[in-house]
Design a protein that fits this description.
about 375 residues; 6-stranded mixed β-sheet; 3-stranded antiparallel β-sheet; 15 strands; about 25% helix; elongated
Amino acid sequence: MIIKTTQISEAEQEHTTSMFPKNKQAVFFDIETTGFSPSSTKVYLIGCIYFDGTAFQMIQWFSQSSQDEAEVLHSFFTFIQPYQTLIHYNGEGFDMPYLTNRCKAYQLPYDFSAFKSLDLYKLLLPYKEILKLPNLKQKTLEAFLGIERKDLYSGGELISVYYEYLAKPSDSLQEQLLLHNHDDLLGMLRLYPAVSYYHLFHGEIQDVSCKLHPYTSAKGESLEEAIFTFTCPLPLPKEISYRKNEYYLSGYGTTSRLAVQVYTNELKYFFPNYKDYYYLPEEDMSVHKSVAFYVDKNFRTQATAANCYNKKSGRFLPQKTEVIIPYFKQNYKDKQTYFELSDDFLQNPDQLRLYVTHILTTLQ
């Protein structure tokens, strides 16, 4: 077995150093195998990147022969014991179950049950459409973020290279195999800032403000939108723009904006306890029985859930659920609700943040 250690330069770290928690509790890892099935293939290379208190370091364990696998597994699991969190890319789907099964093959007492897992692939998968990515392969995300790599091969393409190395070891073949794992690990470290998209869509924002902006639509209609501006504690590494129905989100760095089309019309407020109301067909509204008791019986009917409402005209903003109350609807069975765009709302920082957080978490 060969153990190779490398210090990651400041240039290679790029913006990661400002985001990664330097508490020596997390470690990145990646593996290279001779196939997908742990029952018939082997892991020949495992690599880690960790923070030693001063700088990021890389360590790789490489099997020089087919008899080295157990030693590689033992060395890796011994090394990660002090850490609490393992960071990886689709490790929950492949790397972790694969290594667990290979340990069982050698009756090694190792698994991942004691560790927290941060799978960057699973973390970012819900935002593939928002980021306009064709897929969420690691190299695709690296290209999106402008991350370049020296390695030109895939893990599958290197299987034959490893068998060639076993048959006739050479420094050039070994370097080619180590380089792929090196670039996968370094790529993970450098794409770590992409976790800021996860935090954005989980509503981790602050300093929310709102301005109303009138505009003319393509059809010549005079419309209005509410533009919410807010900051993200973790900067977005690449500019995004995403439109979904009446919402348009854009952001880069620490500043993002959410534009929401204002609904200007008449909506209905539905009373919850319709059995206590009469519906007045002539007025198309419902009133409480204590008030409508004196209305001629010919001009009132028992209210139902669908007609127990009062109408209100004004300016409204849409919401996916009843986050801000009172809420209004166009029709009783509508899932979309609205709330009044009032001065009180515009001047209330807590309400502004609550609303933007709600929309961000429903844009996925």
